[in-house]
Specification:
It contains 9 helices and 6 strands. With 250 residues, it is of the alpha/beta class. It has a 6-stranded mixed β-sheet, sandwiched between helices. It is globular, with a radius of gyration of 17 Å.
Length: 250
């Protein structure tokens, strides 16, 4: 059921017919950061690692209640390397990998959600987002050995990566577009689009994979929303519904 293009939503998507039906669909949910890695900074004391964990757990609960198999990379406040996150998904032979994050920017007026897939169509802004997420590598012991010389700060390192995700790119883009559409239509969130960039964790997972930047913690209004129970539940609802929409296009 591979997708050959993304020009219309009528194309077959990666969800097998059994999704939300008989055979469990295996989904790995990755709450970004954790433990000694708090994630993006916020002067109000809001921690990205806590927000994304709450969203991930709520999303997982909804998916489990619909008969799907859910695997969390973390279900508590612990530190995981990027290699560990990708390994969990690959060893589970998952059907889908969803990584959840929050954004930050020096201009507090910036707001909105964006969803990333792995790819090399990388603008300066997209590279900066990937750079911040990949820099967690520096918190790991023996990172130079583990990542074989990969430098998160180097655009050449991203360009030099082999495209393990290439065959899943169209499928990932389609799911990412459903997520963004739901954020816009259901939650009236500013849609910053579906984008490609060189996230290590997306590159090294062997299934359709997306990384969601749910909003900007540095925007006062959006930060408060992200840190609220209501906001976290609404965001998980939108992601869950995006998966159901994907099922409808089989």
């Amino acid at each position: 059921y591979k997708v050959t293009g993304v020009q219309t939503c009528a194309l077959p998507i990666f969800f097998p017919e059994s999704t939300f039906a008989q055979k469990p669909f295996k989904i790995v949910i990755d709450a970004g950061h954790g433990g000694k890695d708090p994630g993006r900074p916020n002067k109000g004391g809001i921690k990205e690692k806590d927000i994304v964990l709450n969203i991930a757990l709520d999303l997982g609960k909804k998916l489990k209640n619909s008969g799907n198999e859910v695997i969390y990379t973390r279900d508590k406040d612990v530190f995981l390397t990027l290699r560990q996150r990708a390994k969990i998904a690959n060893e589970a032979d998952a059907d889908l990998f969803i990584s959840i994050h929050c954004n930050a920017f020096h201009d507090h007026k910036v707001y909105g959600s964006e969803t990333f897939v792995y790819g090399l169509h990388v603008s300066k802004a997209n590279f900066d987002v990937a750079l911040k997420e990949n820099e967690v590598i520096f918190l790991e012991e023996n990172y130079e050995e583990n990542y074989q010389g990969f430098d998160p700060k180097s655009p050449e390192s991203l360009i030099g990566l082999t495209l393990m995700q290439e065959e899943y790119l169209d499928q990932s883009i389609l799911l990412a577009s459903f997520v963004q559409d739901n954020f816009r239509k259901d939650l009236n969130r500013k849609n910053r689009g579906v984008k490609q960039s060189g996230f290590w964790v997306l590159h090294n997972t062997y299934m359709p994979s997306i990384l969601i930047e749910a909003g900007f913690m540095t925007n006062p209004d959006e930060g408060a929303y992200l840190n609220s129970k209501r906001g976290q539940v609404e965001i998980s609802n939108s992601i869950y519904d995006a998966i159901k929409i994907g099922r409808a296009h089989v």
